[in-house]
Amino acid sequence: MLATAILCALIGLASGFVGAMTGIGGALLAVPLLLISPPILNLSPITVHAATGLAMVQGLVTNLMGTLVHKRAGFVSEFLLRWMGTGIVFGSLLGSVVSRWLPGRWLLLMLGFVLLFCAFQMLRPTPSLNREFVPDKPFQFAVAGFVTGVLAGATGLGTGSLTIALLVYWLKVPVRIAVGSTLSISLLAAIVGTVGKALTLQVPFVESVGLGIGAALGAIWGAKISHKVPAKTLRNILAVLIAAAAVHAFYRFLG
Predict the structure, then answer these.
(1) What are the strands, taking DSSP E only, across 113-222?
(2) Is the predicted pLDDT of residue 23 greater than 70, yes or no?
(3) Confidence class for position 162, pLDDT limits 50, 70, 90
(4) How far, in Å, CA of 249 to CA of 14, rounded?
(5) Are 233 and 21 in contact (CB under 8 A)?
(6) Cβ atoms of residues 249 and 105 within 8 Å
(7) Which of the two ends of the chain, N or C, has the fewest CB atoms closer than 10 A to its terminal CB?
(8) How far apart are CA 67 and CA 184, in angstroms?
């Protein structure tokens, strides 16, 4: 159990760094690593339900630390947090609780399609925006948040990947504001989603502690690095990571 906790801490460190740097929360990296790594190291495998539960914990810690750093830099929109965050909270609670009764293979299939959609969006050219503010579309942000919350809560993916894609390509929010605000929005979903997963016994305690410690350290470092990386580079990193995670999810489903 201790060895698994240490492994989870290392996974948390890597996924926390990537998540806070790109705004995706890191769950899309954490879930594949949690499923693949234990058997390779001759440790007890982590089930799909446990992996999605741990990913929620990872997202909670990463989003919290990343939000603090991005807020200091002025890249968090309170308007987005209020409207999209409200929709995500209700959607995430619904998705995380319902997922308890969904077969693991269905969760993998759902995860694969969500990731594939996000990767496709990230490969599109970034919209040219002659502004650095958020459009006043409260209803659209609330609906997008609810749909995102349901999908993220069910898969444990965290809302980051889908939120980034919707904000940048559909709702026309500037990239840096989208990255910083997504971490804040995802924090709300992660809190509710983690509670839902925990109440339905999908979060192993010892492993979650190790994962949380690693994620906190990685998130602080990743958020600071993101302010020095060009927006286009961030988008390309996102596309590659999300596509790789989608391929892995489909592979696990077919296997």
Answers:
(1) none
(2) no
(3) confident
(4) 19
(5) no
(6) no
(7) C
(8) 5
* Position 132 confidence tier, pLDDT thresholds 50, 70, 90: low
Contacts for 44 with CB less than 8 Å, ≥ 6 apart: 4, 38
Spatial contact of 85 and 185, defined as CB atoms under 8 Å apart: yes
Q: How far is CA 242 from CA 9, 28, 82, 100, in A?
A: 22, 7, 27, 24
Q: How many residues does the chain have?
A: 255
Q: Which long-range contacts (CB under 8 A, 24 or more apart) does 223-229 make?
A: 223/20, 223/21, 223/65, 223/66, 223/68, 223/69, 223/70, 223/183, 224/69, 225/17, 225/21, 226/20, 226/21, 226/22, 226/23, 226/70, 226/179, 227/73, 229/21
Nearest to 185 by CA among 53, 110, 75: 75
Spatial CB neighbours of 72, under 8 Å, sequence gap ≥ 6: none
Cβ burial of 214 (10 Å; 0-12, 13-18, 19+) is buried
